[in-house]
Amino acid sequence: MSRPGEAVSRLDGEELGDQFEAFIHAPFKSDCAAERNATSLAMQLTLKDASGSEGHALLLGDLAYETIAKIFAYSEDHDRPERLAWEVLLAPHHCSKRAMYVSEDGKDVLMHDLLGALSRHAADGAVVVVSSSTFRSEDEPGDNPPHNMARHRYEELVEKVVVTAEHGGAGSPQPVVFTVGPGGLVLVPPVEAEEGADLGKAVVAGGLGFAIGGLLGLLIDRWAASRRERPTDQASPPGPRGLNRVRQAVRAARGEDAAPQQPVGFGRA
Length: 269
Known about the structure:
It contains seven helices and 15 strands. It is an alpha+beta fold and 269 residues long. It has one domain. The protein is globular and about 55 Å long.
């Protein structure tokens, strides 16, 4: 089991540290009995190309302000700012205002400390990706995400906010694709990405790329390539592979097939 404060560079038993690393930030142990969104997996992904360049993305799940602020405070207090670096931020909970606003006396109050933390660790030219449907013209009380008020704050923070439902045209959106370069993750224009061949293989514009929402496909492809390159006399481990292996491990850990009845959290308090 991997816990917050640990990095993962193995996929399905294959060591891919020269290409991929996921540093786990949350959920914290103290969130184990919290509502489902508060137990979201939060991590920093690092992707590397053959030249040694690295790209960083922060994926903060469906977390709200309290846990996100704890993530930044914990890593800053433990002198590991590199684990907070990002060129790409996937806006928490589909651009929910709860990532940066808290309710006080029935009013939404902006938490400037969170915006400051995001800004401190953002690279020049950083991009915020919003995985959501198209935005309403204005927010109404009780609306589910995406929230315009959160989008406006992100637009003040970075030069570009990319909405998956609008990228390349609201009528026919294109995959959101990045490539690793000397400056980290760089957004590939939609037309170039579309012409860049199979996004599942994620080799775009001569670099290592990934599509938000399709990162797993990239990693599986890179893993498959490493297996193809492995000497033929190196035997594969016995038993199921891929998702079947994950399912088997989950069943073994639970002791049964039934889904858990309580939210699950783990790691440091």
